[in-house]
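User: Structure with glutamic acid, C-alpha coordinates only please.
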Amino acid sequence: MAARMSAWESAQHQLAEAVRQLGLDDGFHDLLRTPRREVAVAVPLRHDDGHVEVLKGYRVQHNLTRGPAKGGVRFHPATDLDEVRALAMWMTWKCALIGVPYGGAKGGVAVDPKALSRNELERVTRRYCSEILPIIGPEKDIPAPDVGTDEQTMAWMMDTYSIHSGYTVTGVVTGKPVSVGGSEGRGGATSRGVMFAAFSALREAGVDPRGATVAVQGFGKVGGLAAQFLHDAGCTVVAVSDVGGGVYDGGGLDTAGLLRHVRAGAPTVVGYPGTDTITNTELLELDVDILVPAAMEGVIHDGNASKVRARFIVEGANGPTTPDADEILAENGTVVIPDVLANSGGVAVSYFEWVQDLQAYFWTEDEVNDRLKALMERAYGQVSALSAERKVSLRTAAQMIGVGRVAEAHRTRGLYP
Ligand code: GLU
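Assistant:
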Protein backbone atom coordinates (compact mmCIF):
# COMPACT_ATOMS: atom_id res chain seq x y z
CA MET A 1 0.00 0.00 0.00
CA ALA A 2 1.29 3.47 -0.86
CA ALA A 3 2.20 5.76 2.03
CA ARG A 4 -0.69 7.85 3.30
CA MET A 5 -0.79 11.42 2.06
CA SER A 6 0.49 14.06 4.44
CA ALA A 7 -1.57 17.19 5.09
CA TRP A 8 0.72 19.20 2.82
CA GLU A 9 0.37 16.66 0.01
CA SER A 10 -3.40 16.66 0.45
CA ALA A 11 -3.56 20.46 0.36
CA GLN A 12 -1.41 20.53 -2.82
CA HIS A 13 -3.54 17.86 -4.42
CA GLN A 14 -6.76 19.78 -3.70
CA LEU A 15 -5.23 23.01 -5.02
CA ALA A 16 -4.11 21.30 -8.23
CA GLU A 17 -7.68 20.09 -8.83
CA ALA A 18 -9.13 23.58 -8.25
CA VAL A 19 -6.50 25.11 -10.55
CA ARG A 20 -7.37 22.56 -13.25
CA GLN A 21 -11.10 23.22 -12.95
CA LEU A 22 -10.51 26.99 -13.06
CA GLY A 23 -8.15 26.71 -16.03
CA LEU A 24 -5.39 28.73 -14.36
CA ASP A 25 -1.92 28.59 -15.93
CA ASP A 26 1.24 27.13 -14.38
CA GLY A 27 2.56 30.52 -13.28
CA PHE A 28 -0.60 31.16 -11.29
CA HIS A 29 -0.50 27.66 -9.87
CA ASP A 30 3.05 28.29 -8.64
CA LEU A 31 2.06 31.64 -7.15
CA LEU A 32 -0.85 30.07 -5.28
CA ARG A 33 0.94 27.01 -3.98
CA THR A 34 4.06 28.76 -2.66
CA PRO A 35 3.82 30.17 0.87
CA ARG A 36 4.65 33.85 0.85
CA ARG A 37 6.58 33.88 4.12
CA GLU A 38 7.75 31.12 6.46
CA VAL A 39 9.40 31.66 9.81
CA ALA A 40 10.97 28.89 11.90
CA VAL A 41 11.99 29.93 15.40
CA ALA A 42 13.66 28.39 18.43
CA VAL A 43 11.49 28.60 21.52
CA PRO A 44 13.67 28.02 24.59
CA LEU A 45 11.61 26.94 27.59
CA ARG A 46 12.83 26.96 31.17
CA HIS A 47 10.92 24.14 32.87
CA ASP A 48 9.74 24.54 36.46
CA ASP A 49 12.61 22.35 37.67
CA GLY A 50 15.12 24.73 36.04
CA HIS A 51 16.21 22.67 33.01
CA VAL A 52 16.01 24.30 29.59
CA GLU A 53 14.49 22.70 26.50
CA VAL A 54 14.58 24.32 23.07
CA LEU A 55 11.30 23.78 21.23
CA LYS A 56 10.66 24.36 17.53
CA GLY A 57 8.11 27.00 16.55
CA TYR A 58 6.71 28.11 13.19
CA ARG A 59 4.55 30.75 11.54
CA VAL A 60 3.66 30.43 7.88
CA GLN A 61 1.87 33.20 6.02
CA HIS A 62 0.64 31.39 2.97
CA ASN A 63 -0.99 34.29 1.16
CA LEU A 64 -1.42 38.01 1.89
CA THR A 65 -3.10 39.20 -1.28
CA ARG A 66 -6.61 39.79 0.06
CA GLY A 67 -5.56 41.26 3.41
CA PRO A 68 -3.60 40.50 6.56
CA ALA A 69 -2.79 36.87 7.25
CA LYS A 70 -5.15 35.02 9.57
CA GLY A 71 -5.01 31.68 11.29
CA GLY A 72 -4.52 29.76 14.47
CA VAL A 73 -1.57 28.65 16.54
CA ARG A 74 -1.24 24.95 17.32
CA PHE A 75 0.60 23.39 20.26
CA HIS A 76 1.01 19.70 19.43
CA PRO A 77 3.96 17.30 19.59
CA ALA A 78 3.60 16.29 15.92
CA THR A 79 3.52 19.86 14.57
CA ASP A 80 6.11 20.52 11.89
CA LEU A 81 6.70 22.99 9.08
CA ASP A 82 4.89 20.94 6.44
CA GLU A 83 1.77 20.57 8.58
CA VAL A 84 1.73 24.29 9.35
CA ARG A 85 2.12 25.03 5.62
CA ALA A 86 -0.91 22.92 4.79
CA LEU A 87 -3.01 24.48 7.52
CA ALA A 88 -1.95 27.98 6.38
CA MET A 89 -2.95 27.21 2.80
CA TRP A 90 -6.37 25.96 3.92
CA MET A 91 -6.84 29.23 5.86
CA THR A 92 -6.24 31.20 2.64
CA TRP A 93 -9.01 29.39 0.77
CA LYS A 94 -11.32 29.42 3.82
CA CYS A 95 -11.08 33.19 4.32
CA ALA A 96 -11.63 33.84 0.62
CA LEU A 97 -14.55 31.39 0.45
CA ILE A 98 -16.46 33.02 3.30
CA GLY A 99 -15.60 36.48 2.05
CA VAL A 100 -13.54 37.85 4.94
CA PRO A 101 -10.68 40.16 3.90
CA TYR A 102 -7.74 38.05 5.00
CA GLY A 103 -4.96 35.92 3.65
CA GLY A 104 -4.11 32.64 5.34
CA ALA A 105 -1.59 31.76 8.01
CA LYS A 106 -0.92 29.17 10.67
CA GLY A 107 1.57 28.80 13.47
CA GLY A 108 2.63 26.12 15.83
CA VAL A 109 5.01 24.89 18.46
CA ALA A 110 6.07 21.23 18.59
CA VAL A 111 5.12 20.62 22.20
CA ASP A 112 2.59 18.62 24.21
CA PRO A 113 0.71 21.29 26.20
CA LYS A 114 -0.78 18.62 28.47
CA ALA A 115 2.72 17.75 29.70
CA LEU A 116 3.43 21.35 30.81
CA SER A 117 2.44 23.23 33.95
CA ARG A 118 0.44 26.42 33.57
CA ASN A 119 3.56 28.50 34.23
CA GLU A 120 5.53 26.57 31.61
CA LEU A 121 2.70 27.00 29.13
CA GLU A 122 2.66 30.75 29.76
CA ARG A 123 6.44 30.96 29.22
CA VAL A 124 6.25 28.96 25.95
CA THR A 125 3.42 31.15 24.70
CA ARG A 126 5.12 34.44 25.55
CA ARG A 127 8.48 33.38 24.10
CA TYR A 128 6.90 32.03 20.91
CA CYS A 129 4.92 35.25 20.55
CA SER A 130 8.10 37.33 21.08
CA GLU A 131 9.92 35.32 18.41
CA ILE A 132 7.25 35.94 15.77
CA LEU A 133 6.57 39.51 16.93
CA PRO A 134 8.10 41.21 13.86
CA ILE A 135 5.62 39.56 11.49
CA ILE A 136 2.36 39.74 13.48
CA GLY A 137 0.05 42.67 14.19
CA PRO A 138 -3.55 43.73 13.55
CA GLU A 139 -2.66 44.85 10.03
CA LYS A 140 -0.16 42.09 9.30
CA ASP A 141 -1.08 38.72 10.74
CA ILE A 142 -3.65 37.91 13.41
CA PRO A 143 -3.21 34.59 15.30
CA ALA A 144 -6.07 32.70 16.98
CA PRO A 145 -6.55 29.43 18.89
CA ASP A 146 -6.20 26.03 17.24
CA VAL A 147 -5.44 22.52 18.53
CA GLY A 148 -3.83 22.72 21.98
CA THR A 149 -4.32 26.46 22.49
CA ASP A 150 -7.25 28.43 23.90
CA GLU A 151 -8.46 31.84 24.97
CA GLN A 152 -5.88 32.00 27.80
CA THR A 153 -3.11 31.43 25.23
CA MET A 154 -4.52 34.34 23.23
CA ALA A 155 -4.68 36.57 26.33
CA TRP A 156 -0.96 35.90 26.97
CA MET A 157 -0.12 36.61 23.32
CA MET A 158 -2.15 39.84 23.35
CA ASP A 159 -0.40 40.90 26.57
CA THR A 160 3.07 40.07 25.25
CA TYR A 161 2.51 41.98 22.01
CA SER A 162 0.99 44.91 23.91
CA ILE A 163 3.86 45.14 26.43
CA HIS A 164 6.32 45.30 23.52
CA SER A 165 4.21 47.97 21.80
CA GLY A 166 3.81 50.08 24.94
CA TYR A 167 0.01 50.13 24.72
CA THR A 168 -2.85 47.65 24.57
CA VAL A 169 -3.39 46.17 21.12
CA THR A 170 -6.51 44.00 21.32
CA GLY A 171 -6.73 43.37 17.56
CA VAL A 172 -3.45 41.44 17.32
CA VAL A 173 -5.11 38.11 18.13
CA THR A 174 -8.66 36.75 18.13
CA GLY A 175 -10.31 34.13 20.27
CA LYS A 176 -9.44 36.18 23.38
CA PRO A 177 -11.51 36.19 26.57
CA VAL A 178 -14.36 38.73 26.42
CA SER A 179 -12.74 40.62 29.34
CA VAL A 180 -9.80 41.66 27.13
CA GLY A 181 -11.51 42.43 23.81
CA GLY A 182 -12.83 39.03 22.82
CA SER A 183 -16.16 38.65 21.05
CA GLU A 184 -19.31 37.19 22.47
CA GLY A 185 -19.97 33.91 20.69
CA ARG A 186 -16.36 33.24 19.58
CA GLY A 187 -15.91 30.32 21.98
CA GLY A 188 -18.65 28.25 20.37
CA ALA A 189 -18.39 29.72 16.88
CA THR A 190 -16.65 26.86 15.08
CA SER A 191 -19.07 24.32 16.58
CA ARG A 192 -22.12 26.47 15.85
CA GLY A 193 -20.88 26.79 12.27
CA VAL A 194 -20.53 23.01 12.02
CA MET A 195 -24.20 22.77 12.96
CA PHE A 196 -25.22 25.42 10.37
CA ALA A 197 -23.22 23.61 7.67
CA ALA A 198 -24.69 20.23 8.61
CA PHE A 199 -28.24 21.57 8.61
CA SER A 200 -27.79 23.32 5.27
CA ALA A 201 -26.75 19.97 3.78
CA LEU A 202 -29.59 18.05 5.46
CA ARG A 203 -32.15 20.62 4.34
CA GLU A 204 -30.93 20.38 0.77
CA ALA A 205 -31.20 16.57 0.89
CA GLY A 206 -34.66 16.77 2.45
CA VAL A 207 -33.54 15.10 5.70
CA ASP A 208 -35.16 16.21 8.96
CA PRO A 209 -32.41 17.10 11.48
CA ARG A 210 -34.67 16.08 14.35
CA GLY A 211 -33.75 12.51 15.12
CA ALA A 212 -30.78 12.46 12.73
CA THR A 213 -28.04 10.35 14.29
CA VAL A 214 -24.60 11.85 14.89
CA ALA A 215 -21.10 10.62 15.76
CA VAL A 216 -18.39 13.12 16.70
CA GLN A 217 -14.69 12.31 16.70
CA GLY A 218 -12.85 14.71 19.04
CA PHE A 219 -14.49 16.05 22.16
CA GLY A 220 -12.38 19.20 22.47
CA LYS A 221 -13.20 22.84 21.72
CA VAL A 222 -14.87 22.07 18.39
CA GLY A 223 -16.28 18.55 18.80
CA GLY A 224 -17.60 18.96 22.35
CA LEU A 225 -19.79 21.95 21.58
CA ALA A 226 -20.74 20.65 18.12
CA ALA A 227 -22.17 17.56 19.83
CA GLN A 228 -24.01 19.80 22.29
CA PHE A 229 -25.46 22.16 19.65
CA LEU A 230 -26.57 19.25 17.45
CA HIS A 231 -28.18 17.58 20.48
CA ASP A 232 -29.94 20.83 21.45
CA ALA A 233 -31.25 21.14 17.89
CA GLY A 234 -32.90 17.72 18.10
CA CYS A 235 -30.29 15.32 16.71
CA THR A 236 -29.46 12.07 18.49
CA VAL A 237 -25.75 12.06 19.30
CA VAL A 238 -24.94 8.37 19.58
CA ALA A 239 -21.15 8.49 19.88
CA VAL A 240 -18.31 10.84 20.79
CA SER A 241 -14.60 10.18 21.29
CA ASP A 242 -11.28 11.70 22.25
CA VAL A 243 -7.68 10.47 22.22
CA GLY A 244 -8.53 7.97 24.95
CA GLY A 245 -11.34 6.30 22.94
CA GLY A 246 -15.07 6.72 22.54
CA VAL A 247 -18.46 6.20 24.15
CA TYR A 248 -21.65 4.95 22.51
CA ASP A 249 -25.34 4.97 23.39
CA GLY A 250 -27.75 4.13 20.59
CA GLY A 251 -30.54 5.94 22.43
CA GLY A 252 -28.56 9.19 22.55
CA LEU A 253 -25.72 10.35 24.82
CA ASP A 254 -26.06 12.88 27.62
CA THR A 255 -23.87 15.46 25.84
CA ALA A 256 -24.24 18.10 28.58
CA GLY A 257 -23.21 15.59 31.23
CA LEU A 258 -20.22 14.52 29.12
CA LEU A 259 -19.15 18.15 28.69
CA ARG A 260 -19.39 18.71 32.47
CA HIS A 261 -17.43 15.47 33.04
CA VAL A 262 -14.57 16.58 30.77
CA ARG A 263 -14.59 20.18 31.98
CA ALA A 264 -14.32 18.92 35.54
CA GLY A 265 -10.99 17.39 34.56
CA ALA A 266 -11.80 13.83 33.43
CA PRO A 267 -8.95 12.81 31.09
CA THR A 268 -11.31 11.05 28.66
CA VAL A 269 -14.99 10.48 27.90
CA VAL A 270 -14.37 6.72 28.19
CA GLY A 271 -16.06 5.19 31.19
CA TYR A 272 -18.84 7.78 31.37
CA PRO A 273 -21.75 6.08 33.24
CA GLY A 274 -24.40 4.39 31.11
CA THR A 275 -22.34 4.22 27.92
CA ASP A 276 -20.60 1.48 25.96
CA THR A 277 -16.92 1.91 25.14
CA ILE A 278 -15.91 2.01 21.47
CA THR A 279 -12.65 2.75 19.67
CA ASN A 280 -11.99 5.74 17.45
CA THR A 281 -11.85 3.33 14.51
CA GLU A 282 -15.31 1.96 15.36
CA LEU A 283 -16.72 5.48 15.74
CA LEU A 284 -15.67 6.42 12.20
CA GLU A 285 -17.43 3.32 10.86
CA LEU A 286 -20.78 3.78 12.64
CA ASP A 287 -23.98 3.74 10.61
CA VAL A 288 -25.05 7.34 11.36
CA ASP A 289 -26.54 10.20 9.37
CA ILE A 290 -23.83 12.70 10.31
CA LEU A 291 -20.18 12.02 11.09
CA VAL A 292 -18.21 14.99 12.43
CA PRO A 293 -14.45 14.43 12.42
CA ALA A 294 -13.33 17.20 14.78
CA ALA A 295 -9.84 16.09 15.78
CA MET A 296 -6.82 15.90 13.50
CA GLU A 297 -5.83 15.65 9.83
CA GLY A 298 -5.87 12.49 7.77
CA VAL A 299 -8.15 10.33 9.96
CA ILE A 300 -10.29 9.24 7.00
CA HIS A 301 -7.91 7.74 4.45
CA ASP A 302 -7.66 5.09 1.73
CA GLY A 303 -7.45 2.38 4.40
CA ASN A 304 -10.77 3.08 6.11
CA ALA A 305 -12.88 5.25 3.76
CA SER A 306 -14.69 2.24 2.28
CA LYS A 307 -15.90 1.33 5.79
CA VAL A 308 -17.47 4.73 6.47
CA ARG A 309 -21.25 4.36 6.52
CA ALA A 310 -22.25 7.93 7.44
CA ARG A 311 -24.44 9.73 4.93
CA PHE A 312 -22.83 13.14 5.59
CA ILE A 313 -19.34 13.95 6.80
CA VAL A 314 -19.11 17.45 8.26
CA GLU A 315 -15.44 18.35 8.69
CA GLY A 316 -15.01 20.13 12.00
CA ALA A 317 -11.24 19.53 11.83
CA ASN A 318 -8.94 20.84 9.12
CA GLY A 319 -7.98 18.19 6.57
CA PRO A 320 -9.53 15.08 8.20
CA THR A 321 -10.18 13.41 4.81
CA THR A 322 -7.37 12.63 2.37
CA PRO A 323 -7.92 13.02 -1.40
CA ASP A 324 -7.80 9.20 -1.83
CA ALA A 325 -10.57 8.87 0.75
CA ASP A 326 -12.59 11.61 -0.96
CA GLU A 327 -12.72 9.50 -4.14
CA ILE A 328 -13.87 6.39 -2.28
CA LEU A 329 -16.51 8.33 -0.32
CA ALA A 330 -17.84 9.94 -3.51
CA GLU A 331 -18.21 6.51 -5.13
CA ASN A 332 -20.14 5.32 -2.08
CA GLY A 333 -22.44 8.34 -2.12
CA THR A 334 -21.21 9.96 1.11
CA VAL A 335 -21.55 13.74 1.00
CA VAL A 336 -18.52 15.53 2.45
CA ILE A 337 -19.05 19.09 3.70
CA PRO A 338 -15.43 20.25 3.42
CA ASP A 339 -13.40 21.81 6.23
CA VAL A 340 -12.99 25.23 4.57
CA LEU A 341 -16.78 25.53 4.67
CA ALA A 342 -17.83 23.38 7.63
CA ASN A 343 -15.38 24.78 10.21
CA SER A 344 -15.28 28.35 8.90
CA GLY A 345 -17.48 29.60 11.75
CA GLY A 346 -14.37 30.01 13.89
CA VAL A 347 -12.52 32.38 11.61
CA ALA A 348 -15.79 34.10 10.68
CA VAL A 349 -16.33 35.15 14.29
CA SER A 350 -12.59 35.88 14.58
CA TYR A 351 -13.19 38.40 11.83
CA PHE A 352 -16.15 39.84 13.75
CA GLU A 353 -13.92 40.04 16.85
CA TRP A 354 -11.16 41.89 14.96
CA VAL A 355 -13.71 44.31 13.48
CA GLN A 356 -15.13 44.96 16.97
CA ASP A 357 -11.61 45.48 18.38
CA LEU A 358 -10.66 47.93 15.63
CA GLN A 359 -13.87 49.88 16.16
CA ALA A 360 -13.81 49.47 19.96
CA TYR A 361 -17.54 48.83 19.66
CA PHE A 362 -18.93 45.48 20.73
CA TRP A 363 -21.92 43.45 19.61
CA THR A 364 -24.35 41.23 21.50
CA GLU A 365 -24.11 37.45 21.27
CA ASP A 366 -27.35 37.36 19.24
CA GLU A 367 -25.90 39.82 16.72
CA VAL A 368 -22.76 37.69 16.39
CA ASN A 369 -24.71 34.43 16.01
CA ASP A 370 -27.16 35.91 13.49
CA ARG A 371 -24.33 37.30 11.34
CA LEU A 372 -22.51 33.98 11.55
CA LYS A 373 -25.59 32.09 10.41
CA ALA A 374 -26.15 34.45 7.47
CA LEU A 375 -22.50 34.26 6.43
CA MET A 376 -22.34 30.48 6.56
CA GLU A 377 -25.63 29.92 4.77
CA ARG A 378 -24.50 32.27 2.01
CA ALA A 379 -21.19 30.40 1.65
CA TYR A 380 -22.97 27.03 1.68
CA GLY A 381 -25.37 28.22 -1.02
CA GLN A 382 -22.52 29.38 -3.26
CA VAL A 383 -20.60 26.13 -2.84
CA SER A 384 -23.65 23.98 -3.42
CA ALA A 385 -24.65 25.95 -6.54
CA LEU A 386 -21.19 25.69 -8.09
CA SER A 387 -20.99 21.99 -7.21
CA ALA A 388 -24.26 21.37 -9.07
CA GLU A 389 -23.33 23.60 -12.00
CA ARG A 390 -19.88 22.09 -12.57
CA LYS A 391 -20.71 18.57 -11.36
CA VAL A 392 -17.84 18.58 -8.87
CA SER A 393 -17.72 17.65 -5.20
CA LEU A 394 -18.54 20.22 -2.55
CA ARG A 395 -14.83 20.24 -1.67
CA THR A 396 -13.73 21.03 -5.20
CA ALA A 397 -16.43 23.69 -5.50
CA ALA A 398 -15.39 25.29 -2.19
CA GLN A 399 -11.74 25.25 -3.24
CA MET A 400 -12.61 26.68 -6.66
CA ILE A 401 -14.41 29.61 -5.05
CA GLY A 402 -11.61 30.26 -2.54
CA VAL A 403 -8.75 29.78 -5.00
CA GLY A 404 -10.60 31.71 -7.70
CA ARG A 405 -11.07 34.75 -5.45
CA VAL A 406 -7.41 34.77 -4.46
CA ALA A 407 -6.36 34.43 -8.11
CA GLU A 408 -8.69 37.29 -9.01
CA ALA A 409 -7.12 39.49 -6.30
CA HIS A 410 -3.64 38.67 -7.63
CA ARG A 411 -4.74 39.51 -11.17
CA THR A 412 -6.32 42.79 -10.08
CA ARG A 413 -3.35 43.91 -7.99
CA GLY A 414 -0.83 42.90 -10.66
CA LEU A 415 2.64 41.44 -10.16
CA TYR A 416 5.21 43.84 -8.69
CA PRO A 417 7.51 44.97 -10.24
N1 GLU B 1 -7.89 27.70 14.05
C1 GLU B 1 -9.16 28.02 13.46
C2 GLU B 1 -9.22 27.49 12.05
O1 GLU B 1 -8.53 26.58 11.69
C3 GLU B 1 -9.51 29.49 13.59
C4 GLU B 1 -8.56 30.44 12.93
C5 GLU B 1 -8.87 31.90 13.20
O2 GLU B 1 -9.86 32.19 13.84
O3 GLU B 1 -8.06 32.72 12.78
O4 GLU B 1 -10.02 27.92 11.26
